[in-house]
Amino acid sequence: MRAIGRVKRLRMPRCTAALSRELAAMVIALSSLLILLASVQFQALRSSAIDDLGATAELLARNLSAALIFDSLDDAQAVLDALMQSSTISTAELYALDGRLIASRTVQSPEWGHGLVLLQVSRDVYASGAVVGYLTLQASSSRIAIWTGVFLAVGAVAVAAAWLASCVSARRASMAALMAQQSLSWMSRHDPLTGCANREELRAQLQACLQRPQASPALFLIDIDDFGLINAAYGTQQGDAVLRVIAQRLQVLAGSSDCLARISADEFALLMNEGQEERLHGIAMRIQALASEPILIGNAIVRVSACIGMALLPGDGTTVASALGAASAGLAAARVTGHGRIARYKQAQERLLRERARLTDALRQALKRSELSLYYQPIHDIRTGHLRYAEALVRWNSPEHGPIPPDTFVPLAETAGFAEDMGLHILGRLHRDRSDWLEAGVVPPPVAVNLSAMQFVREGAKAAFLDRLETLGLTPDAMQVELTERAAFEEVDAADSILNSLREQGYELALDDFGTGYSSLSYLHRIRCSKIKIDRSFVRDMDRNEGARKLVKAIVDVAHAFGIRTVAEGVETERELDVLRSLGCDFAQGYLLGRPMAAAAFLQLISAEQARQSADSQT
Fold first, then answer.
1. Comparing C-alpha atoms, which of 586, 490, 9 is closest to residue 234?
2. Quick one: which of 336, 284, 337 has its CA closest to 308?
3. What are 286-314's pLDDT values in tens digits?
4. Residue 275: is it exposed, middle or buried by C-beta count within 10 angstroms (0-12/13-18/19+)?
5. How confident is the model at residue 332 (pLDDT cuts 50, 70, 90)?
6. Mind giving me the DSSP string for 242-292?
């Protein structure tokens, strides 16, 4: 992805110049120290050489006293010749007390030694305690210079090695600083989890797009549906893995000049520099197709859906704020209509969003005022025709808005965070209805209550639900539990799964809408439900579609192999009931057998059913 936003220039040349100045200062300091040490070394060697030369002169002076007393030039010269065998002395001269040169000996220094400072000492020659002459010795300082040079050479090598090591270290530090600065620059513009751009980078690139003449960029906001449930069921680490997979898939759609960004926990943005009106919906469909492909998490497979809001610029927005606002309005409109929906920003959507806000507030008040009621749809044994239990269906007749269909207010409750309150409210309503039936002298059959995975997102929600069951006395003989495949899939592997807790307490679990979600044999084995409900779409097609009939038969056979009973939903004709009976299905539910009815009507149905069963038993 090519960055459009301006990136802060790295100031490495200034950093390198500073390091070079520091290295130069270090070399000068080390060289000065080396020269100082060499001077000290030279003076120490010179002092030692002078001391040695003085000691030699003292020794010779004692041996030359006789030659001076007897004025024996040959003896004096012989002593000096013997002395000059030493390679350190270059000149020796013996003088009488009156200044006459008695004897001398000189050794020519090599040419490279010319000009070196000579070392010279003089010693008096004594005889019987009186000075009779004096001896002068000179020695070359070449050896001192050699050793000083060696010292300087070794020191220079050490300084060079230190400089080289410092250069290497400085280079590494410079590279590390460069990499760190580049990393910080990258992190300031990207999401560290997915590698996508972040919100600020998206804004910068969006600003650059809007400033280009004749440009018509398209902006897509992509929100993963119910992503919090994945985190709740599998943990944030696995949730992060899902986000990385989705980011990799969406990157396929982003060209070199486009921008894919992660702008919140479960929301992505795709900015395409060249958008076209007729291609918007097709691109959104491709985004949904990529996002909905199966994702492997451990040993489980997750399928996610996404709501998408679209905006075509600059028509839908001429500034960064208005462009993001338009796409956000489209996304909000998509969320209103359900999971996996697509919406384009329109003026009418603002009215829809305002209406949604009013409906949300009305639902909040409805829960406080207990406006929600339950309708009960009977479920019959196909073989005997007897009423076995019922399913509780929540209804809302708003004084302000009139009857609101469940497929409108139930998703609204889930997205607005009311799912937990609604679930507890349903338990309370069921308890009141059962109390009325018992007071009327009839024993009601078990009632199946639908659970939503969104009821248990909050920490402590599961414990609150179980406590409410115990407080209301809704025991397993009074209540059963139905859950969608999605809810079962997201809860079944959790360590503190509500399903495991309910199963351990003896509640029967039924898997609703079987065949429309994540159906597989492994799910049936893991969920360990007692019933599965065959979706009405399969039941409805049995008369016209042989494949649907075979599928229903396969579901029944597989369920029975697992020791699970089957419930057919949406039975509306006698022909469908006969086919289900021939396939061995256990229970049936639908308009043919009974529509959803209020608590009072269900009481009459229970009474009639019990009277019929009593009459059948007497005959």
1. 490
2. 284
3. 999 998 888 887 777 788 899 999 988 88
4. buried
5. confident
6. HHHHHHHHHHTT--TT-EEEEEETTEEEEEESB--GGGHHHHHHHHHHHHH
